[in-house]
Automatic annotation (TrEMBL):
UniProt key word Amino-acid biosynthesis: no
Lineage: Bacteria, Bacillati, Bacillota, Negativicutes, Veillonellales
Originating organism: Veillonella criceti
A Pfam family: DUF805
Record's protein name: Predicted membrane protein
GO cellular component terms listed in the entry, alphabetical order: membrane
Transmembrane segments: 6-26, 38-57, 77-96, 103-124, 130-147
Keyword annotations from UniProtKB, A to Z: Membrane, Transmembrane, Transmembrane helix
Annotated InterPro entries: DUF805
Length: 172
């Protein structure tokens, strides 16, 4: 029964995260746009930044859970953790969708990858699956970091050239 609860919880979290990215698109919030491309440096910076945010958020939730003394506050912390992870998952959607669009693939591939991570995350405490999932996640991230995207404009936008290269003019 726990497996069905975890799958259902991850599914609802994925739907909320997708609704957040849709809301960001409607309200013209650039950080939540699924359109566009990311180069390897932008992806690396985003991955490091989101990893730090997730670590800080998980430490906050862990500290709050250790100090819970009544049932109402326990469920309040659980709800805060759920909503916080949904918001963070929406940022991961954007990160992975825009990176795979740099390869001329549809962004749904990146979103499916994030959903896979969200579905498997509850099982990471199980030692036999933890190592396998972490190896798969590291391999995919390494592939996305090492392989350059398409060097020409594609249907998802122009080449992501950030930081922009400075052109040095020679004096005659």
């Amino acid at each position: 029964m726990d497996v069905l609860f975890n799958i259902g919880q991850a599914f609802v979290m994925g739907l909320i995260a997708f609704a957040i990215t849709r809301w960001g698109y409607v309200h013209n919030i650039k950080i939540l746009y699924l359109q566009g491309r990311l180069n390897r440096l932008q992806f690396l910076i985003g991955l490091i930044g989101l990893t730090l945010v997730v670590s800080l958020f998980n430490n906050l939730i862990s500290t709050m859970m250790n100090n819970v003394v009544i049932l109402v506050s326990y469920w309040g912390v659980r709800l805060l953790a759920f909503l916080g992870h949904a918001i963070i998952l929406s940022l991961y959607y954007v990160l992975y969708a825009r990176r795979v669009q740099d390869f001329s693939l549809h962004g749904i591939v990146g979103i499916c990858w994030c959903i896979f991570i969200a579905f498997t995350y509850p099982y990471l405490p199980i030692k036999s699956t933890s190592a396998a999932f972490m190896v798969i996640i590291w391999i995919v991230n390494l592939v996305l970091l090492v392989i350059p995207g398409s060097g020409k404009p594609n249907r998802y936008g122009d080449v992501a050239l950030w930081p922009k290269k400075k052109i040095v003019k020679k004096r005659i």
